[in-house]
Each structure stands twice: as structure tokens, then as C-alpha cells.
Write a structure and sequence with these properties.
This protein is mostly helical and 89 residues long. The protein has 1 helix and no strands.
Amino acid sequence: MVKREVTTGNLQSIATTLLSWATVLVAITLAYGRLTSKDELHDLQLQQIRLELNERKIAETNMNEKLGTVQADIRVIKQILEHRLPKPP
């Protein structure tokens, strides 16, 4: 017959095993948290880059509109100087 006794050595072994498992669980949880925070940081950086690109596109569109207006004004001035259009009042 197998004798089952709870000795101090057995209790220490169980406690060590539980402590080891707790340590591994904490380490995994912390590593996951760091990875998640890095992903969130990359998402925020990507969002910032997208916002900057949109701002640049808007600025470029505005600049192109202004350039178009200037080009049209230059054409009108050129036609006035070449006497194709009457001078404005």
C-alpha cells in the first residue's frame, strides 16, 4: 500500500511550482502588454502620418487652385498686352 504523507518537502515543492507558474504568467502578461502598447504606438504613428498626408494633399490642392488662377490672370494680361482684349475699366 502506498503511503501518502504531506511533508515539509512536499509543501515546499508545491509552493515552488506554484511560484514558478505565477512568475511565468506574470512574465507572459507583461510581454503581451508591451507588445500591445507597441502596436498602439505604431497605430497612432500611422494615423499621424495619414493626417499629415491629408493635410499635404489639401495644401497641394489649394496651391494648384491658386496656380491655376495666376496662370489665367497671366493669360488675360498677355492678351491685353497683345491688344487682343480691351483694357479693363
